[in-house]
Amino acid sequence: MIVAGSLREAAPHVLDLSRAAAWPLLAEPTSGLRLPGALAAPTVLLADERFTSAHTPDVILQLGAAPTSRAGLALVAAAERLMIVDPDDLVADPHRRAESRMVVGADPLAASVAGRLEPRDTTTWHRAWLDADRAARRVVDELLDGWDEPSEGRVARDLSAALPSDATLVVGASMPIRDLDLFMAPREGLRVLGNRGASGIDGFVSTILGVSAAGGPTVGLLGDLTLLHDVGSLLWSARRGFDAVLVVPNNGGGTIFSFLPQRELPELEELFTTPHGIDLGAVCAAAGAGHERVEHSSDLVPAVKRAVGAGGVRLVEVAVDAELNRRRHAELAATVASALRG
Fold this sequence. Notes:
The chain is α/β, with parallel strands linked by helices. It folds into 2 domains: 2-137, TPP-binding domain (Rossmann fold); 149-331, 3-Layer(aba) Sandwich (Rossmann fold), CATH 3.40.50. It is 44% helix and 15% strand. The chain is built from 15 helices and 11 strands. The protein has helices at residues 13-21, 42-46, 49-54, 70-78, 106-116, 124-145, 152-162, 175-183, 204-212, 224-229, 231-237, 268-273, 280-287, 300-310, 322-341; strands at residues 2-4, 25-27, 59-63, 81-85, 100-102, 168-171, 191-194, 218-221, 244-250, 290-294, 313-319. The strands form 2 sheets. A 6-stranded parallel β-sheet has the order 7-6-8-9-11-10, with helices on both faces. Strands 2-1-3-4-5 form a 5-stranded parallel β-sheet, with helices on one face. Strand 1, helix 1 (13-21) and strand 2 (25-27) form a beta-alpha-beta unit. The longest helix is centred in the middle third of the chain and has 22 residues, at 124-145. The radius of gyration is 20 Å and the shape is globular. 44% of the residues are buried.
């Protein structure tokens, strides 16, 4: 299997290598390889432990950064052999499992290897991944389409699908990058950037505005706390000629912790979720930024298109029920598991 983490430079020949070797391509959105030909719902599949335990790759070729999700990290750690192509010398091997690490460009290496391979016929194992991926993608889309109330997963899917082919989507840390990884369908033409690491929340509004200064439609997907952590940049820059749209699922705090062991702690709310109760519309009014609030899933894409067309700095706030969103994630996992069992 080829696992593509974040890459700074485009590597389209990886798709040629995946086809020639008959190895499935599991590509994170920030790899630039969540394209037609890659798995369409890879992280949803990885979350099903029964499927992954029966279909663990013997060999993984990892490109770029280590996977974002815990399931992706577990898959890489479980492979008998791990080889890493590490163009930025990140030492992207948190489990110290790699038998080799090559500090070379992913695209030239993939082009060279693909050009030397005799194309292989698909294997039973490969077909199992492709069949399961199609089933998982179908379940994801059917469920998301059936939920009128906004969920963070549908925001990520619909936004990434609707942006024009010359757009850049700048995705925030915590839940937005994970929801995009779970729900984004393969497509061409969209550049996806992200701030990661222990301080990925820092200066994220500034990052979006900086990307927008390079030209082209720029849309940020970020949580409410990420916005408020860098609200100074919004207040300082909204009237200074930037064109950027900030899509903010507002779930009232750091709800990623409702998916983590901290959920069971008595101090969950005061130390981890930290609900803010701030009126984002009022913040935008003070900053001179546009604002529109979305309360139905089907209204998101039209709101984003209006904001992009209007120009300037504009915020599209999506009202999200945090507890319902958590239950939707659990429902999705259970429905995918049922579909995979046939």
